[in-house]
Amino acid sequence: MYQELLNKEKKLALIGLGYVGLPIALEFARKISVIGFDINPKRVEMMKQGIDPSCELEKEAFEGCDIKFTSDLEDLREASFFIVAVPTPVDSHNVPDLKPVLSASTTIGKVLKKGDYVVFESTVYPGCTEDDCLPVIEQVSGLKMGLDFKLGYSPERINPGDKEHTLAKITKVVSGCDAESLDTIAKTYEIVVKAGTHRASSIKVAEAAKIIENTQRDVNIALMNELSCIFDKMGINTYEVLEAAGTKWNFLKFFPGLVGGHCIGVDPYYLTYKAEELGYKSEVILAGRRINDDMGARIAKKLVQQLIQLDKTIAHTKVLVMGATFKENVSDIRNSKVVDVIKALKEYHVHVEVTDPYADNEEFRHEYGEVLTTDLAKDYDAVIVAVNHDKFAALDEAYFKSIMKPDGILVDVKGDLRKKIAGIKYWSL
Questions:
Q1: Is 55 a catalytic residue?
Q2: Is the pTM of this model over 0.85?
Q3: 97 and 149 share a domain?
């Protein structure tokens, strides 16, 4: 398989062309023949024109690539090595939603042939690939893993907005259903991953490795958020404390903030869901999740309390929220915790306006029912810098004074502006 892919005698298919799938597809397409499949025809047409619907890649990234973009199932029959990179969200009750990954399994089952390979990259709980996806593939295809086709798992490590830690530079964890498949899958990824691969002993180990990467970060950020609540009551600036503690060589540098997106704020629930299914009730992980999920409401509550202290009638106050995406310098609004701040403020009857140079207005309105504005006022009672986009970090005190009332409050969630502000009522986490 590996050599046939290199010789372009066989093709690789990438199913799901979002933040994860498209960069992987294009990277492979510079070396081998690729079929890029997505169920959204509109996105497919954009990619045919060299446009990344996620606004992560420039047009040049599509140049020199041997790739066929399609939403037609029949085109997938040309492929022999399938990589699945579809989303794995949670529902409103934080229960894993496997519909996208099971739908992709059904799709593969319809086109799978003897001798083919299937590798999942979507973040799931340990056991999902073999216990949930595999039965669907086998039932639809009528083929048996090991005997007719090979199965593997290689967790994605794409970091949206990160131009330094790209696919080729990050060690790729790989796994397979047997020694042969592990070797083939590893060598296939090594075509594009210059940092090399780490061969996990089993598919479950690879799945678990991915899920704890983001769970570890989530728990550590939760600790920082809890510390910020404590230090706030003590009148201490959290970032000054972390700066001082960070002078020790083994102090881990995590920071407080809003934890959203489709990874850190979601993945831990996959692990705790499976743990509970097996009879174990998670304590530390779920405690961290509760702390992080409460931060939006905490920020809104503290701001409202400060506005009341200024003798303002809350229903007549106007607040500008700067930033709507889940992290800095990206357009992705999925699971943005900034929305929690907005909703909490509106529950207090505050008039809220939101601006973001990266987010798409129609997408934001469709997803959250909120409208973005570019026409900023000059009389905000408070401004919340919720996402530290580079464009916001470059602003100075004079700018904020120009859009706020004289007694306005500046809330700098990530603390990026703290050394720039002297003449405005200011606080950060």
A1: no
A2: yes
A3: yes
